[in-house]
Amino acid sequence: MTLLQIVLSVLLTGLQLALIVFVGPLLSGFRRFISARMAGVPAPPVLRRWFVIGRELGQVPPVQQSDAPPLVAGMITGIVAPFSLAAAVCAALFVPAFTQGLLTRSWSDLLLVGLLLVLARFTALLPGLAQPAERATLAFGRAVALALVLPCLFLLVALLFSAGATTDLASVLTGMNHENPFVEGAPFVLAGAAMLAAVDPVEKSDSEEPGSDGALLMLSRDIAALTWLTLAGDLMWPGSLASVLDSPSFLSGCGALALGVLCWLLRSFLLAIILATGRAFALGDLAAVRLRAASALLLAVLALQLMTAARLMPPVGVMPEENRVSEKAPSVHPATRRTDIEKR
Amino acid sequence: MPVILASLLSATAERWIGLPPGQQRLACQAMWLVAALGALIVLPWSAGDARSVLPFFTLDPLGCLFLVVFTILGCCSERWIRPGGRLPLACAVACLATFANDAAALMVTGCLALMLALPERQKASAGCLRTLLFAAACAPGVPHGAEWIAIAAALACAAGAGRRQPDFAVAPMLESGCGLLLLCRVLLRPDTVITPAMTATLIAGGMLLAFVRVASALTTRKGCIANAGLAGLPVALSITSIGLLLLAGASGSALTAHAAACTLVLGLVTLWPVAIAFLRTGGLVAEGAGSDHLGRLGGLLLFAPRLAGLFAITLLILTFLPPASGFTILWLLVETALGLLPDGFTAALPSLAFLLALGVLVALTGLAALRLAALLLLGSARSPRMAACPDAIWPALVPVSGALLFAVVAGFVPGGVLRLAEPVLQQLTGAPRVTVQPFFTLVAPDGLSSWMPVGVTALLLLIVLIIRLAQQQVLRSRTHAPVLKREILPDTHVGETTPWLGGLTTRAPWLPFGEPLIWSGVDMAPSSLRSVLFLRGRCRIMSRFRMLRLGARGLHRLRQALRKTAPFADHATAVVLVLVASLSALLS
């Protein structure tokens, strides 16, 4: 890796970090807007989330003006909020959003990313769990909703491994960069759809945590949701990732980067609209949680079935009567490739 | 030598040596920690010619590895308040059992360690059963008999219940360690023949045990059971990894077998000490709070910040979430299972079911950890005794901190630990070194996936630091006033009038006459899960089926019959003795 490539990687990582911090609350506000429109209630402005976070970021946490006993709730928010946001940002940096060749690409393991997002969500729920019974039960219910989707992540890891003989997200996405999403990439479209179930739905009542730590928690939740959407979009449409480092000239690199950012925004907002339209269905909370978990599991199993069925089919361009194995077979059949790696 | 010194210091009365009060405990704990470090360091040199320690006792790589676990157990079993006791002695005997190269020596030392750690009279039958199974597995018998009994003994030892007495809080890990040592010794004998049924039993038994443990942690009202449930997960995963190791060996995949062996080794060095520290901290919490009932605790973060901090850190590591060492074990297990993934959907179904079970286990573990945190650390005191919970002094936390530091440092250099434990890996896989692991990174059997704990942790901490600095900067620029340092306990005392609260009198954390706050109960987690997983009309629909009604009636009668036999529970030990004796006689 040359020095120029390292500098470019650092710049791309910084750009992705800045864009994620900027787009996360924006996308959350957009989802709230569309959800409210779908539910037929007055919609808040799209930029409201950003304004709330900006306003609360400069507010000192409120002092308890009563003789109530000292509670953990105020203290725990200050401890877990930066940790939760850091976990969400870490996960967001490991997922290639609009370009490949990030500085953190060697750490972009799907299991790591998924569990970092779970860590961010669970730690963000701790202030809720420190509240009295009603709010604590609500917070635990949200944890249960995420935990029910978690097992499907392990199936998606197996799917990724079946495709690329590794769980490294960046490597697999590079390998299936030019696949048709409706033919070879169909299992990954299903996998992306399964991953949408992990996105935290917007609350019916706009809960805003007061104080600077509350702003960090809101930002953490928005970035985690955007990362899940980015992950789903990557699996559904890996061709939208630009390879800036391989561009022949500076101008073409800039063009590829701009196109990659545009595609990322487009697919993220499209997926956000799809998620927000779920509010149009009149479902209770429990039914929605069950539906999310069941659909994620079914989609993941179906994706695995499609992947194994695709493996049994002959590669495109090979006639059925040709029984001999071509030279390119190891790169087409991941199982063979895996065996080769093991032999090596 | 450090083990002998530690045992002597532990068993000798303080007035005989003449050291200042407490110094002998510290010296003893330091000796145990030195022994753990020494055992890890001498691992690469333990594979040479047989080094005889005593007659029938020899230093070998696997024994050295288990010596690390038992010495840390010994360190954590030393009490600051009450010196001595039989658990440190049991740890010393277990350390001797790690050197046993003869079946009879292993039987004597292992059974002695288990008997020294026997639970109270009501549960002594379970302890006797474990001891007798241990002895039966060491005895010669019919072909495959010893292997099956060793598997049963390991599972029985790993299923030990949590102890309510603070002195014996870490005893379940000692029993589990003895069981796992026996299993490794029996399965690594040159004349042992591994059958597929044994492999399947190990994998399924380990996973089932993990599910039982985490389900008990999710539903129990007792703190000791919840703690033992979460601390038992590394044990269950170690048994599963032995099963995966045998499976990979049978399928001829050397790299995957190496990964499974790495899981076992890293689990013993990096996750078991955390589980031991977790149990020790839980014991200290129960002692300080004066109750073991989870519904009477709460708000530990306010009353005992040191204990709460250590408890939270160990809990976080045990939840398998990154970047802690629990995730390292989970990642290795997943990579091992993926390495054994065959082609074709039908053929891959067992592997996929295993991965799905791992996912469910991680999800349930996360929920159990959240529940424990909500009931113990968060909220406020649910009883007046809890509000008077004292914090532990630093010398009392030395063993816990030492074990935790050891595990965390070893978890940051997994490649280095595996290089040190290379003889153990060779002993387990039966093959020479395949690839050299980098010092800070773990590489999966596929050769492409990798996991670097120290890098991700450093990145996470760097981001936390940046966020905290940026937050302080924003607060300073907006308010134009210095931001006061947040204090865990504000400097207000009970009954004191403080000007910043409007002249109001602060009250005690537990309000005897004020308006009570209703906190979530111990049934929050099971009721939330039940409401999501089960349909509401289930009981009405199912009551229509006659068979189910009959089944419910039968269960009711069974419970009544069991209640009637409760007075005979004291004789359960004798029943177990007779049963195991007859079983051993049948097998031999």
Can you describe this structure in just a few lines?
With 344 residues, chain A is an all-alpha fold.
Tally the helices of chain B: what do you get? 26
> Tally of extended strands of chain B?
4
Shape of chain A: globular
Largest interface: A-B, 87 and 94 residues
* Order of H and E elements of chain A: HHHHHHHHHHHH
For the termini of chain B, the CA-CA separation is: 39 Å
**Major sheet size, sense and barrel closure of chain A:** none
Overview features:
heterodimer; A: 344 residues; mainly alpha; 68% helix; B: 588 residues; 3 domains; two-stranded antiparallel ribbon; two-stranded antiparallel sheet; 26 helices; globular
Structure description:
- The complex is a heterodimer of chains A (344) and B (588).
- Chain A contains twelve helices and no strands.
- With 344 residues, chain A is mostly helical.
- Chain A has one domain.
- In chain A, helix 4 packs antiparallel against helix 8.
- Chain B is mostly helical.
- Chain B has three domains: 1-138, no CATH class; 194-451, no CATH class; 457-482.
- Chain B has helices spanning 2-11, 14-17, 23-41, 61-77, 86-98, 103-116, 124-138, 145-158, 171-187, 196-219, 223-231, 233-251, 254-289, 300-303, 305-318, 325-339, 345-377, 384-387, 398-412, 414-420, 422-429, 453-479, 524-533, 538-542, 546-564, 572-587, and strands at 51-54, 57-59, 442-443, 450-451.
- In chain B, the strands form two sheets. A two-stranded antiparallel ribbon of chain B has the order 1-2. Chain B has a two-stranded antiparallel ribbon with strand order 3-4.
- Chain B is globular, with a radius of gyration of 25 Å.
- The relative contact order of chain B is 0.09.
- Residues 492-508 of chain B have low confidence and may be disordered.
- The chains are: A mainly alpha (344), B mainly alpha (588).
- At the A-B interface, helix 3, helix 4, helix 5, helix 8 and helix 10 of A face helix 13, helix 16, helix 17, strand 4 and helix 22 of B.
